[in-house]
Amino acid sequence: MPANIIHDNIDFSAYMARTEAAHKLIPAGAFADEVADYLEHGTQLTGSKLPWRKTRDLIRFRSGEVTLWSGINGHGKSLALGQAASGFVCQREQVCIASLEMRPVVTLARMTRQTVGARHPDRSDVLDLHAIWSDWLWLYDQQGQVTGERILAVMRYAAEKLKVRHFILDSLMKCGLAEDDYTGQKLFIDTLCTIARDTGMHIHLVAHSRKGRDETQTPGKMDVKGSGSITDQVDNVVTWWRNKAKEAAVQAGEPVEAQQADAIMVIDKQRNGEFEGKVAFWFDKDSMQYIDSPASIPADMMTQGFWA
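Above: the chain sequence. Below: its structure as tokens.
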């Protein structure tokens, strides 16, 4: 079974001190080959992929970066991030999830459906999958409020002891910071960025968007709750929006065009990548997968090598 990092059975005191940025003085000559390659070939598309072929050349999740996943509450950002986490594991990268709003069993059940591609996977498939996950997937077993100091310590522990490459924190509002504590938010995000740089771990942070006049408009990075410095400091901003107007029309029996997307991913910022824009997705209820097109078939992510 995927292992739990239980908050009361590990001494995090050694990891509680604030991480200071390492001041590494390196002679320019040490970068000669790297600079020559950069000037000759330009930037290379590197980093972990999302589990959709259409995004492969649009966005990557690089070592030492922080990505903010935002969206209106209930619009599927945590579900999409769970599918992304399954994809990272399929790429043989260790993942730790600190879902402070959902019990580990619920998180894992959703990820199991997404990975296997079915509503009711066979029990043997579930057990086999979790046996594989034991070496790659960890969960921090605590729900509700946690201090920022504690969750930062958990991140340092996960990076140093478990060699975690992707840490998912869901969500910012559960880290003991008030919505109007802009200074506290800025310092917290600054420390996240420092931990990511110092450890090479990619940190995925979930934050809610402010609700507008209605939910029919796709929010952007300017709509993230809290301090504007949040989106300034992180490397990438991904916003997830659910087409609730389409859902209401379907529920009412009204005709809906098949090409009308169920969800939109907005890549609002990518500091070390070129693409910014919108990507459309459709939703398969049985597998809880977001898929590339209305004609797509949900994949068995462990066997079909979607990341190749």
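The first strand starts at residue 3 and ends at 6.
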